[in-house]
Amino acid sequence: MLRSLHIENIVLARDLVIEFEEGLNLITGETGAGKSLIVNALSLATGARGEAGLLRQGTDRALVEAIFDLSQRPDLVERLRNLGYDVDEHEILLRREIGGDGRTRAFLNASTVTNAVLKKVTESLVELHGQHEPQTLMQPEQHRSILDRFGGHDELLGRVRLAHGRLREIAAKQSEMEERAAHRESRLAQIDFRLAEFDRCAPDPGSEQALHAERERLRHAEEIGEALAAALERLYEGEGAAIDQVHAAARRLRAQASHGEEYAELAERVDDVSAQLSDLAVDLRREFDDVQADPSRLAAVEEQVHEIERLRQRFGGAPLVEIVEQAHAMRREAAELREESESGEALAAEYARQFQVYQSAAEALGDARRKSAEALTRAVAGLLDSLAMPGAKLEVSLEGVAADVAAREASGALGLEQVEFLLQANPGEPARPLRRVASGGEISRVMLALDIALEGGLPKRTLLFDEVDQGLGGDTAERLGEFLDRVAAHHQVICITHLPQVAARGKRHVRVTKKVKSGRTVAVVKTLEQRIDRIEEVARMLGGATISDTAYRHAEAMIEAGRRPETEGRA
Questions:
Q1: Any idea what DSSP says for residue 430?
Q2: Displacement of CA 401 from its chain's centroid (Å)
Q3: DSSP state of 343
Q4: Which residues of the chain have pLDDT under 70?
Q5: Spatial contact of 563 and 535, defined as CB atoms under 8 Å apart
Q6: R_g over Cα of the chain
Q7: Closest CA to 288 of 353, 236, 360
Q8: What is the pLDDT of residue 565?
Q9: Could you give the maximum distance between any two Cα atoms of the chain, in Å?
Q10: Secondary structure E strands in 417-556
Q11: DSSP one-letter code for 366
């Protein structure tokens, strides 16, 4: 809600401060008195383009300050804080300065901001109607929100948003997996190649030493065999072999046993040597039989050793134990990569299921929107007829978007329809988008009708109507006053009016006049707080500069009742 507006050196305003209240605020005054400077000032405060031509003659600096009460707009307070502005929970100060060169500076509280930021911040806080472009109705992207508020589609819209959000999450995962897919296939190919090398060699760290030993034996089999044969020859099998010499020694010692027991014991010990030589001969024979040259086996062993060496080179010269561990790790990685590929298929199936959920929710919302569009068209038609727009019709265009297209776009969270309001101002004429309708008065009345149809469904904001009553009179003027009252029950309304039927209703009434002071014309603003002042102003609007007793009594009765008499002649 706009609490106050300070205007300094703007056109006729030298230094004005205007206080506003909740509900219906009225601004009256004769044509040319300077009422439009209030509109210009509020436009500047909310980001309109400034220029040197707005400065009061003879000054080099102009100033506009607007204080807004945000106690009923916690959403806007949170939004401003998220943007990084230090905002009191109850109010903000918007300040705009214009220099003599036409350059402007804008402030939000103590922070310097751009005009673009100022517009963005205030777009849901203030709307100007009449000679200025109304914000909401000139932005087709807002029409869908208005229709959904009228139809009470919050629950349906929530389902669509939830389903679309989940769909986008799945799509993001799919996109991420697709980006990794090429790497995954490349990595799998690399792992498969390395594992094929490993499996072809099938190395066993515990047998590597034995393999090297076998290779040595096979390489020197002939030399080893000769040594074993010579040992057998000398120890057991040849003429004069050691075994025969040992046997002979044992016999001679045993023959001396009668000369002493110790010789018998020595003979037994020599017999033990003989037994050991016999056992040794068995082992030598076995080794001799095993060590026979085997070129094919040697070739096979050599190939195994070379395979291990090549494998070790492939794995950076790591020990065989580490190579085996790496192979196990690659098998695990390959399994995970293949599982991820299978997850991609599962994700695609999940996306298909979620898409059906989204499409179903979006179609249900679309059906509700079409029904609400018909109801809104009927509701607004009757209201426009009461506002001197007989036969005028508000049409709601619902242009569908394919579900698969909407699913990929952020806007798909709002459903499958693009919504735009069209106005058929006169029967027989084509309906045109509101943004292309030339008459500011028509747009203002459509806004009034929509606000009444929604009965406070839009966020609380300040609505300024600049001469929305132009060309109206009689019962239509009375109905306009009633409509403004209804809208003011939900929003702050500031209305610049020439109609006494409207002026008699305001909660706060401000009169603008022109006076000459020190040879300069200045605008003078007076808040009509006394009942007699309001009666005189409404009487002036009824009867002109000369106020008759009849006009005075008539004005008094209108203010008391909050409406004009039904007799047209009394107006």
A1: P
A2: 21
A3: H
A4: 130-136, 180-182, 203-212, 214, 221, 301, 340-343, 437-440, 467, 545, 563-571
A5: no
A6: 51
A7: 236
A8: 39
A9: 178
A10: 417-424, 432-433, 462-466, 492-496, 508-517, 520-527
A11: H
